[in-house]
Inverse folding.
């Protein structure tokens, strides 16, 4: 077992307390139904999110007490789930089969192995350099040129999103920050909480004062007012959670705004892809909740940004 | 004793196989009709992969699996001991002889009818062989019509399997864990005034109408 610092348990206690309070509020709200006996869609949405958060917290805590290796394995499995959801919808031909086999059974495991071995130099370039050059080679030897670029590019994007970006969440455990030893797990908690509250706050702001839709063809309920208001309030959430992190108040605020903005836009990008492919959800893990990618779209986009900002400004030298 | 062991083993292998295909293909199972009850039905499906039977079978509620029998070619399933074990102990296939000269006793349609009478549901592939062409569906053989004539009260449930050939295209060795979908449509029966071709067209259309609109394979 890892030497868990007392701070960590205290932090988890608070996080759990916050979740309990929000869950109680949503449960109370959901008792109020409208004349048709239907739930208010905002409350319904909130309830669904809460379920996801509880599962995430439980999983994170249970793997964390077993160690870094377990966290890496958990995220490798999540990546596998996300990758299958993505590759199920990308343009493909049976000539791409080897590229798919390599993606699932070579590239994904190697990326997480590099992470586990703490081999940062390789972890950072393996997918965008080696995997991206290897994949089209595997497809081209099969000789089929029809929509070749679309097939290759979409497979690469699947790896980017489902493997490369997602692997930056557990990568937070491997940052070396002075005076923050054994507490890197809290960075993961911070990331997930800030990004998810950013989603929620953007949703709420849009519902309350939303006027100008960002891109009405993708979603009428995503507005500039919601985006900006949500990002700013996510900054405040980040400040309130800054005791989990090595960041000062100002830095935490900026980080919160950036994560919520990147996460919110990422969610829209993924919504556009779903719409183009004519699906409502990426997957069907649990009823009405979609799949791995539906749950994690904003985290996927925010994770590499969070990782690199933290690494650049806070990682100890030498 | 040996029989009992083989039966139990067959049951265990079936559970393992269903678990494996669920893990590999994470099938999205869509019932466009009321979920199955205890009454025997005929599931007729498109055939693009050797694993089609396993996927339909695994998509059914566990309680009904042992009462749902794939109809399959005897020459294939009796070829060696392992196939025979899977054919008779895991899937309880209704084995039919493809060539008329090999048949003794009941003809295939009668065999299927008797299995239905005994309370089993059936899984059949009305195209008669695996579809390796670009066309979504091959013209049906007449078996489905003869079965509908012989047992006019039995519900015929169209099934569409999507993407299983993407998991393992023909000629590949390693499967990839893409998500499959399996759609169960509204049951149909032979109409009173319907002739063979009309009925087979209707059955074929019922299957095609279950097909997802978007196709990302090129």
């Amino acid at each position: 077992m890892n030497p868990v610092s007392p701070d960590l348990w205290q932090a988890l206690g608070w996080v759990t307390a916050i979740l309990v309070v929000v869950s109680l509020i949503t449960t109370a709200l959901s008792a109020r139904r409208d004349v048709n006996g239907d739930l208010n869609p905002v409350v319904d949405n909130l309830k669904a999110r809460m379920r996801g958060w509880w599962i995430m917290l439980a999983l994170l805590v249970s793997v964390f007490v077993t160690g870094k290796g377990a966290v890496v394995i958990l995220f490798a499995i999540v990546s596998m789930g996300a990758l299958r959801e993505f590759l199920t919808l990308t343009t493909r031909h049976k000539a791409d089969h080897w590229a798919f086999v390599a993606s699932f059974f070579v590239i994904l495991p190697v990326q997480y192995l590099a992470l586990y071995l703490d081999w940062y130099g390789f972890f950072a370039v393996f997918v965008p350099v080696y995997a991206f050059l290897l994949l089209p080679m595997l497809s081209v030897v099969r000789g089929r040129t029809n929509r070749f670029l679309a097939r290759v590019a979409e497979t690469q994007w699947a790896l980017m999103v489902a493997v490369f970006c997602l692997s930056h969440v557990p990568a937070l455990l491997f940052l070396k920050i002075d005076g923050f030893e054994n507490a890197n797990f809290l960075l993961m908690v911070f990331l997930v909480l800030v990004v998810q509250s950013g989603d929620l706050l953007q949703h709420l702001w849009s519902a309350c004062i939303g006027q100008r839709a960002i891109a009405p063809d993708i979603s009428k309920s995503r507005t500039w007012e919601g985006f900006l208001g949500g990002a700013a309030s996510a900054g405040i959430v980040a400040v309130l959670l800054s005791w989990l992190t090595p960041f000062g108040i100002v830095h935490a605020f900026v980080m919160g705004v950036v994560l919520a903005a990147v996460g919110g836009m990422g969610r829209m990008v993924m919504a556009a892809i779903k719409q183009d492919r004519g699906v409502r959800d990426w997957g069907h893990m649990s009823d009405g909740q979609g799949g791995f990618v539906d749950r994690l779209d904003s985290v996927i986009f925010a994770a590499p940004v969070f990782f690199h900002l933290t690494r650049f400004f806070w990682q100890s030298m030498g | 004793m040996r029989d009992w062991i083989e039966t139990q083993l067959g049951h265990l292998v079936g559970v393992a196989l269903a678990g494996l295909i669920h893990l590999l293909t994470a099938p999205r199972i869509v019932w466009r009709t009321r979920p199955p009850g205890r009454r025997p039905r005929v599931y007729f499906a498109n055939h693009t992969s050797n694993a089609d039977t396993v996927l339909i079978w695994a998509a059914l509620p566990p309680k009904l699996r042992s009462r749902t029998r794939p109809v399959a070619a005897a020459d294939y399933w009796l070829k060696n001991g392992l196939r025979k074990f899977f054919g008779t102990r895991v899937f309880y296939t209704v084995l039919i002889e493809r060539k008329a000269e090999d048949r003794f006793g009941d003809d295939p349609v009668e065999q299927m009818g008797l299995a239905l009478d005994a309370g089993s549901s059936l899984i059949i592939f009305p195209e008669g062989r695996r579809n390796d062409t670009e066309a979504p569906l091959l013209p049906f053989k007449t078996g489905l019509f003869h079965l509908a004539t012989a047992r006019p009260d039995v519900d015929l449930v169209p099934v569409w399997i999507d993407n299983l050939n993407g998991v393992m295209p023909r000629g590949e060795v390693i499967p990839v864990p893409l998500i499959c979908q399996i759609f169960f449509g509204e049951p149909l029966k032979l109409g009173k005034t319907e002739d063979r071709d009309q009925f087979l067209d209707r059955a074929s259309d019922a299957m095609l109408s279950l097909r997802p609109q978007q196709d990302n394979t090129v």
